[in-house]
Amino acid sequence: MSRTPSGDPEIPGYDRRRVDDDSWLFVREGVKRRVRRVGPPEQLASIVFEPTVARTRQGRFERGVASFLAAQHTAWLLRELKIDLLLDVGANVGQFAAQARRQGYRGCIVSFEPVPDLVEVLERKSADDPDWHVVGCALGNEDGTAEINWSRGTLSSLLPASEFGKQWNDSLDDMATREIVVRRLDGLWDEVADGLEAPRAFLKMDTQGYDVETFRGAGDRVAQLFGLQSEVAMVPIYDGMPRFLDQLALYESAGFETTGMFPVNRDRDTLRAIEFDLMMVGPAGLAERLGGPPA
């Protein structure tokens, strides 16, 4: 999509018709695209979507928009907080780390992933990036070993699926187990922050219900986090998974404040929101931006 000298959007090869002050309809051979301006005209921000999809596949449409906004928000936080150490916990196959690189982040990334099959994928993806490191373990509140539940795809959790979770997602009802290593973040801190005199760390957690244990395992290092991202649950899909308000209370008690929250998924049958991505600024970041020394 491009823009005319007056700032109106245009899509090459499509006929344009203005619908109202903030939206246009583009048509070509029966294919329709709608462009809606987002925010004041001077911001030149617009969204392109198919009207039929927005009506008939609302969930998919909403997830796409929310995912885009969440990625933009995280990239903004990394820039604003001048992050140079991105702790990617529950790295899976590197989606978050790769996205951070596409968004312009050039600092150090340390990806934590305990499932060996996924670690192999991560190591291949990070092979040509000298500032992207892979650690083959989970993070929790105690050092040791544990059995992780793995769906033989990309879903894995140290917690068993709840009855609701099994009904909501069939893959959660067919889990294998693997023995993995679990470490506390504070015990690994000197290793992962090696070479950074005063690391400006951002903790991203997507551990399928284990974010609270991961956070607690950071110990006193929590005070050195400039920001975090955590997946929070409105309806737990794993047994023992804390609910949103409990997670929020824990993070706020450690000095974190919310900067944004974006929906991840919902239950189509009941219309309930299941999970959100919660973004927060930490005590170190707050102190600095309020004019005091970092914690």
What features would you describe in this structure?
This protein is α/β, with parallel strands linked by helices. The protein has 2 domains: 2-56, no CATH class; 58-289, Rossmann fold (3-Layer(aba) Sandwich). Helices cover 29% and strands 32% of the residues. The protein has 9 helices and 17 strands. The strands form 4 sheets. A 7-stranded mixed β-sheet has the order 9-8-7-14-15-17-16, sandwiched between helices. It has a 4-stranded antiparallel β-sheet with strand order 3-4-5-6.
Write the layout of secondary structure elements.
Elements: E1 2-3, E2 9-10, E3 15-20, E4 23-28, E5 31-37, E6 46-49, H1 51-56, H2 58-80, E7 85-89, H3 95-102, E8 108-112, H4 116-126, E9 132-135, E10 138-139, E11 144-150, E12 156-157, H5 163-168, E13 176-183, H6 185-192, E14 201-205, H7 211-216, E15 225-233, H8 244-253, E16 257-266, E17 273-281, H9 283-289
Parallel strand pairs: 7-8, 7-14, 8-9, 10-13, 14-15
Antiparallel strand pairs: 1-2, 3-4, 4-5, 5-6, 11-12, 11-13, 15-17, 16-17
